[in-house]
Design goal:
By secondary structure, the chain is of the alpha+beta class. 42% of the residues lie in helices and 16% in strands. Strand 2, helix 2 and strand 3 form a beta-alpha-beta unit.
Amino acid sequence: MRARLLALVLLLLLAGCSSGGTRDDGRITLRFQSLAWQEESVEANKRLVEEWNATHPDVRVEYVQGSWDSVHDQLLTAFEGGEAPDIIHDASDDLADFAYGGYLADLTGLLPARLKSDIPPRSWQTTTFGDGVYGVPFLQEPRVLIANATWLRTSGVRIPTPAKPWSWAEFRRITERLSGRGKYGVAWPLKEPVSATLNLSLSAGGQLFHRGPDGKVTVRFGTGDQVVPRTVHAQANTDRSASPTTLGSGGSDTLPGFFAGRYAMVPLGFSYRQQIVQQAPKGFAWQVLPAPAGAGGLTQGVSPQTLSIAEDCPHKKQAAEFLDFLLRPPNMVRLALGDWMLPTGTEALKDPALHRTKDGWATGTALAGHLLPAPAQSVRGYPEWKDKVATPALQEYYSGAIGIDELGRRLEEDGNLVLARYQR
């Protein structure tokens, strides 16, 4: 009797550790780990799960709340312990090691033709590793300039549009013109400088990572790669048009000073508009401007948010059907509005709600066709290169501690040593 009781307890514990499965009544249960964190986004995700469950009684989806702050380590532990959620919300720049490690299912034969054709090939590139597709890119976020509309209007500077953006040189001149008496034309929040620098450098013709015929990647810090770093460095150290105190700050940290009139502009991700709407003082006028353009036009690199299926998921077909439901055009619009981001789907992007001038939606949507995979998207060893080489080197350069030549040497020589360990 005691032995049978212990066996039953063990069976229940093992069942509790399962990432999903089939109940005695035949109903399938799938666990969906969402990283939505803004109130509107969480509500949109939970509502869609409820709608699925109401119309699919034989395949129940459980909503599990995750966190962007710890998702990589949490997923790695879950994968190795056999406890990963069935459906995984993440970002495309976090997928490479999971995909190559065999933790994610190849979605090539699982997704419906509608979803495959609705999302452009350039977006699918962000989740394609080798011959497989390991996630569905569904939300994307350009970097834009959030500007004090009153300050810019009274200064008389030319206001850029997606059709006629500022060049990087013009942007530098304008921020210098707007500065003085303790105020700055721009506040760069560069606590994590690598992503912003690399993704914006595509607009200047930068590439940085070069893949050879043998498939191996090397770092080359060319002329196009230097435009954005040189601009930021000059604004902070020569022109005194960029606040030196915000270089080590996150995006949210710059908002109090922006609202107080210390900075005319702040380069931020598109979704920061929600915080601005919530926190801006009454009567504060702001507007969304496109980031500067160079040899590459308005091109930017992005790492879209993604939805993947765990390789260990026992019900991949049903999980893919849930993804198809979640990412139908009207639902993709709901998710985009909840996160204040842009959908990747071409049908969703046509929705009138995403073309309003209010809160800068139209400006962001006009940039959607210029968004390409982030330069480091498929580079193995990128996380180590970013943390150990690029982040400290860029931080020192932007603060004025080292020059452009030393920055280039460290990105190339030190960086290639790191990447070589992953490409043997």
